[in-house]
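Readers of this paper often ask what the protein records in our data store actually look like. The remainder of this section carries one protein's record, kept here as part of the documentation.

:::
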Amino acid sequence: MAFILDVFIAALVSVFVLLLVTVALVFFEKFDDDGVIEVFFLSSLIITYLAYHLFYLTAFGATPGKLLLKLRVVDSYGRELRFRRSVIRLLGYIVSLCSLCLGFFHIIIDPLAQGWHDKIAGTYVIYEGS
């Protein structure tokens, strides 16, 4: 199983990529007179986040950060994720996040280094070639 630090670094790379997309969206987005971001921006940010994860997990088996560190997300049989399992894992992210990130911190104490999102989807983060 992948080391916790590697998974954390991979997550930071993904956050950085999404941050760049967000900055681009903000740059081109108009603000209301009150300075409140329009609903369009928020919905486009959510759609970008969902599409980013679903595309990379389904097409490459990893997000750019994980690819950089030679990590992959696989199912319990070691196979690449299909779209359906990627969606389930993404919904698991919401559970992990809404619990004050306890689902992500669970990786530290779990013997298989699985977060709640991995447990929900039946996935593992492994090194390529494992």
About this structure: Residues 4-127 form one domain. The chain has one domain: 4-127. The mean pLDDT is 84.
